[in-house]
UniProtKB/TrEMBL annotation, chain B:
The keyword Magnesium does not apply. InterPro entries: 4Fe4S_Fe-S-bd, 4Fe4S_Fe_S_CS, DsrO-like, ET_IronSulfur_Cluster-Binding. The keyword Lipid metabolism does not apply. Pfam families: Fer4_11 (PF13247). It comes from Thermosulfurimonas dismutans. Keywords: 4Fe-4S, Iron, Iron-sulfur, Metal-binding. Residues 139-168 form the 4Fe-4S ferredoxin-type domain. GO terms for molecular function: 4 iron, 4 sulfur cluster binding; metal ion binding. This is 4Fe-4S dicluster domain-containing protein. It comes from the Bacteria.
Amino acid sequence: MYNSDKVIPGIIIFVLFVTLPIWWNHGKSVAAPEPELPKKGRCVESKEYMRSHHMQLLNVWRNEAIRQGMRIYTSSDGARFWISLQNGCMKCHNNKSKFCDRCHQFAAVEPYCWNCHIPPETKKFKAPKASGLLKLFGVPPVLHGSSQAESYGHAEH
Amino acid sequence: MDRRKFLKLAGLSVTLAGGVPGFLNREVKARAYTPPPGALTARRWGLAIDVRKCWEEPNCNECIKACHHLHNVPDIPDKKREVKWIWKDEFEHVFPDKPNEFNNIIFTHKPFLLLCNHCEHPPCVRVCPTQATFKREDGIVMMDYHRCIGCRFCMAACPFGARSFNWVDPRPYIKDPNPKFPTRMKGVVEKCLFCYERLEKGKIPACVEACKKKALIFGDLEDEHSEIVRVLKSRFSIRRKSELGTGPSVFYLL
């Protein structure tokens, strides 16, 4: 073989490089997530079903509740639940960061639901953050203007 | 293999492949969705606003406060980006076609309570590309915020300016959030939904309940015996821009 002194080390380096991710994480293990479960009671469906299907269930729930007006869910074993995320799931699972988030961080999913739905542990909302673009143009992050109360004032004449 | 054998075998394998796992699948078990018991129902919900009673308390904003608190409507000071479900404006703006010049003198600057008219033929519903807004059987023009993509066609179509767009994240402008109801997020359109979530629990809309003067009358427009029909039959009322043919369900008793 021509140039075997260069080709063979080259192949070895290539193989090592390509399998780098395996070596890199070798021996390290990531702990399985431990969501904090309610002490007693039951979920709307079996634990196994919830673990694998809660996203589908939530999707059906929101369509049924909002588009069809169906607010009562009868589970596969005949128990009845009020359909709601904030007033349903989160009444039992009353800490989002210790329940939903623990698994989701592990699975690297970030459901956008919490842009609107308020987690049980949130009591107040934070002031708006200045994004880089706003800072660059010196735009204040908080909107100002005539207050709403003033705008009704003229209606009193 | 002859044709007969082949067909038998094919039939059997299809049954095994499709039917048996489907039969064993736990998802097939009965899971039922039913409407809530004790809900208030109607064939066409409507609202009559007794403006004379409303004017007795010119500084009262109880209905607005109750609604906006309950539904986490932000209080954004910038008028161009404000969000509102129910608000007040003066006669000239509310009825721009001016019934006649004398009415105009009597009513100039008088406040009128405004909210979504829950039209019989809602133009917003016709233009929504995702069916995020749709008409329920009880007449309520609903919003499914999950489907709203923020195109704002509905805002262009609505002749009453009843819809608000979230230009910014509304959360910092909600001082005292109600944990029982979601907020909205930047990029969706929102409006009054006639408190459908309260009707489901047997309660009347928050604005109607909050009005100390009982100036708001909520009821079924297609029920002969409802209070709203009785009042509308006995008193003169007007609707906003009824000439457009959208059929508003909000009436102003004069």
